[in-house]
């Protein structure tokens, strides 16, 4: 009998701390699966963020370090200088990457750093209990926008993939979602492409993954997936914004 | 014998770091230490190393963390407001036990202050502004030669203790030129050597070992407490092994100065001025500021009438001087701030005042 689904070697047999229905786990698995299939696990170094995925190193079977909130791209920059032949990635939430760490991510992309950033956009601060993120949608209720996010005081939700795509150093930028099997397959393809771009050292790679936070959205897992589809995807359109073919 | 060369302090520090095997530098321009950043940008690539001009000091210290966690021998440098921004990283590097050498070339503060020299970053260096129970090992050389000699040792200590080491000088030492004998270069480590010498580093498992994790998060209070107690053993060991201090004329002294860095050199001239008037003054020059040489103060004879802390600050080291004196002597301050260097006559005048002697 052929196994249609099995453990991927990149994921350690640990029980994760993620809430039921949280899609952080899917994103973890996709990245580790791609690295495993490419035989790159032993040559990979990862940087975990501050956020719900702070313990990613506990689950991912590659050398990893923790970072201060938002600083992962700077850390990966330092790693790249010393470990020139390795595959390096950061895994960051939206608070981490689009708020406190905007400086670090924009500048790393601007320098064209040869690593890949996986950006988990769940439109909220998960770990600290559901505060507004720069990516929270207009009208979205969070613990710091109880009446819903207001554009006049909080601005419009920031589209990081589009912002990063404007920078010459970023050569691969794609936004994907993990809300359905079809989208998960597309997300995997994006991860594969991003890693390939890094293997060829073409420049900075950025994969934005739309993700759910059932706990802080106050929705059950199924409703969360629906909310993502109905509210996030229209504002954060899926697709490839930039791939090396476009870059001279 | 090694040749004596005339070099600007900042460039000599940078060259000494390269000769100590440092191959990675991450920095952001700030006066009065820009020559270090510029020197590294020119020289490191020639030695197979890397330089990155970071977008901020916050990024610089985190690049340094990444580079050192990946096994590289890393130097960073900055000045007062820049070091302030790096303190988030210092706490991280201490908690994750990553070796690093930090060069702090201080200027006058607070705030933007002035680009002239100051020593008001004593608290910043020895007490830190990062969170948690951590310590940097802090050394304050008083000549370019001493700083250069200290560089290789600083890398050794950082490696042995797996803790950041700071060399804290003021703008005077960074900007002045002095003849200096540079150390003999030692070979840098690279490739497989890194994983052998630094088995804890993130070098990729190669499929041959369990994954290395560099972390500072301990959610269980008992685990974190055990971790901090562990780190403290290292700090207690440092208190026994890393104390460095120079003393002069304590036995015959009627007054004792305590001064570090370039201020100690100015104080030595004040001691000569006082000697001409028949006043015998001694000097304690702490070279390690953390751990501080408290025990040396026991060598001050009971016959001494006053102890003066000479600093380019409103009095920061003076707290440690008081701890060292244990209430045995009146302790006062002699200092200038705002980027102004104190002069030997000013120090001598403060000494006379403390002794109740008229000029
Ligand atoms: C300097 C600093 N500021 C604030 C925090 C608190 N903090 C921890 S996680 C977090 C938000 C994380 O949100 P996000 O990046 O969106 O990740 P998620 O938890 O949603 O996966 C914040 C603000 C911190 N640890 N450090
Ligand atoms: S709080 Fe939200 S993001 Fe964090 S684990 Fe739970 S569901 Fe996932």
Give an overview of the whole structure.
- The complex is a heterodimer of chains A (248) and B (359).
- With 248 residues, chain A is an alpha/beta fold.
- Chain A has helices at 24-37, 56-59, 72-82, 94-100, 102-111, 151-154, 160-165, 181-199, 214-217, 221-235, and strands spanning 44-47, 63-65, 87-93, 116-121, 170-177, 204-210, 239-242.
- The radius of gyration of chain A is 17 Å and the shape is globular.
- Chain B has 359 residues and is of the alpha/beta class.
- Chain B contains twelve helices and 16 strands.
- Chain B has helices at residues 9-19, 34-43, 57-69, 80-95, 122-126, 144-161, 171-175, 192-197, 221-241, 262-276, 317-325, 344-355; strands at residues 4-8, 24-27, 50-53, 74-78, 100-108, 114-117, 137-139, 164-170, 177-181, 213-214, 245-248, 255-259, 281-286, 288-290, 306-311, 331-335.
- In chain B, strands 2, 3, 4, 5, 6, 7, 8 and 14 form an eight-stranded mixed beta sheet that branches.
- In chain B, helix 6 links the parallel strand 7 and strand 8 (164-170).
- In chain B, helix 1 (9-19) crosses helix 2 (34-43), helix 1 (9-19) packs parallel to helix 6 and helix 10 (262-276) packs across helix 12 (344-355).
- The model of chain B has no long low-confidence stretch (mean pLDDT 97).
- At the A-B interface, strand 1, strand 2, helix 3 and helix 5 of A face helix 3, helix 4 and strand 10 of B.
- The site of iron/sulfur cluster (SF4) has 12 residues of chain A, from helix 9.
- The site of thiamine diphosphate has 18 residues of chain A, from helix 4.
- Chain B: This is 3-methyl-2-oxobutanoate dehydrogenase subunit VorB.
- Chain A: It comes from Anoxybacterium hadale.
- Chain A: This is 2-oxoglutarate oxidoreductase.
């Amino acid at each position: 009998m052929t196994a249609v689904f099995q453990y991927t070697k990149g994921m350690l047999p640990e029980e994760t701390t993620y809430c039921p229905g949280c899609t952080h786990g899917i994103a973890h698995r996709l990245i580790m699966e791609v690295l495993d299939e490419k035989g790159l696990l032993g040559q990979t170094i990862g940087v975990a963020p501050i956020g719900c995925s702070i313990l990613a190193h506990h689950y991912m079977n590659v050398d990893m370090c923790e970072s201060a909130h938002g600083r992962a791209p700077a850390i990966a920059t330092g790693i790249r200088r010393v470990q020139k032949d390795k595959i390096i990635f950061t895994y960051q939430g939206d608070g981490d990457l689009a708020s406190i760490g905007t400086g670090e991510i924009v500048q790393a992309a601007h320098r064209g750093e040869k690593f890949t950033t996986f950006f988990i956009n769940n439109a909220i601060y998960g770990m600290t209990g559901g505060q507004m993120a720069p990516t929270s949608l207009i009208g979205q209720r969070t613990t710091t926008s109880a009446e819903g996010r207001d554009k006049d005081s909080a601005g419009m939700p920031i589209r990081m993939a589009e912002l990063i795509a404007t920078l010459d150093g970023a050569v691969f930028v794609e936004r994907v979602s993990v809300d359905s099997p079809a989208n998960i397959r597309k997300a995997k393809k994006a991860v594969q492409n991003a890693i390939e771009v890094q293997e060829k050292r073409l420049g900075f790679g950025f994969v934005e993954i739309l993700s759910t936070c059932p706990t802080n959205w106050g929705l059950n897992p199924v409703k969360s997936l629906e909310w993502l589809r109905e509210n996030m995807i229209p504002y954060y359109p899926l697709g490839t914004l930039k791939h090396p073919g476009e870059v001279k | 014998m090694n040749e004596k060369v005339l070099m600007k302090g900042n460039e000599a520090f940078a060259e000494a770091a390269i000769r100590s095997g440092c191959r990675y530098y991450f920095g952001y321009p700030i006066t009065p230490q820009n020559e270090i950043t510029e020197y590294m940008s020119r020289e490191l690539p020639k030695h197979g190393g890397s330089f990155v001009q970071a977008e901020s000091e916050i990024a610089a210290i985190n690049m340094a963390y990444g580079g050192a966690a990946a096994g590289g021998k890393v130097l960073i440098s900055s000045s007062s407001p820049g070091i302030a921004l790096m303190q988030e990283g210092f706490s991280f590097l201490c908690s994750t036990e990553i070796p690093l050498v930090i060069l702090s070339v201080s200027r006058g503060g607070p705030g933007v202050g002035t680009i002239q020299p100051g020593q008001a970053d004593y608290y910043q260096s020895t007490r830190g502004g990062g969170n948690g129970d951590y310590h940097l090992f802090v050394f304050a050389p008083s000549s370019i030669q001493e700083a250069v000699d200290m560089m290789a040792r600083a890398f050794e200590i950082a490696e042995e203790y797996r803790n950041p080491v700071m060399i804290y000088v003021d703008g005077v030492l960074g900007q002045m030129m002095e003849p200096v004998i540079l150390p003999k270069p030692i070979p840098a480590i690279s490739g497989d050597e890194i994983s052998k010498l630094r088995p804890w580093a993130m070098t990729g498992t190669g499929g041959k070992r369990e994954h290395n994790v560099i972390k500072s998060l301990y959610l269980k209070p008992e685990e974190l407490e055990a971790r901090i107690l562990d780190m403290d053993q290292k700090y207690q060991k440092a208190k026994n092994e890393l104390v460095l201090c120079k003393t002069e004329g304590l036995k015959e002294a009627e007054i004792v100065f305590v001064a570090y860095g370039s201020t100690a050199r100015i104080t030595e001239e004040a001691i000569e001025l006082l000697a001409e008037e028949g006043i015998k003054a001694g000097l304690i020059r702490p070279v390690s500021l953390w751990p501080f040489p408290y025990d040396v103060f026991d060598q001050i004879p009971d016959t001494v009438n006053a102890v003066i802390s000479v600093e380019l600050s409103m009095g920061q080291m003076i707290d440690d001087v008081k701890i060292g004196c244990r209430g045995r002597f009146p302790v006062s301050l002699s200092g200038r701030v705002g980027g102004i260097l104190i002069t030997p006559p000013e120090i001598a005048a403060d000494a006379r005042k403390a002794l109740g002697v008229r000029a």
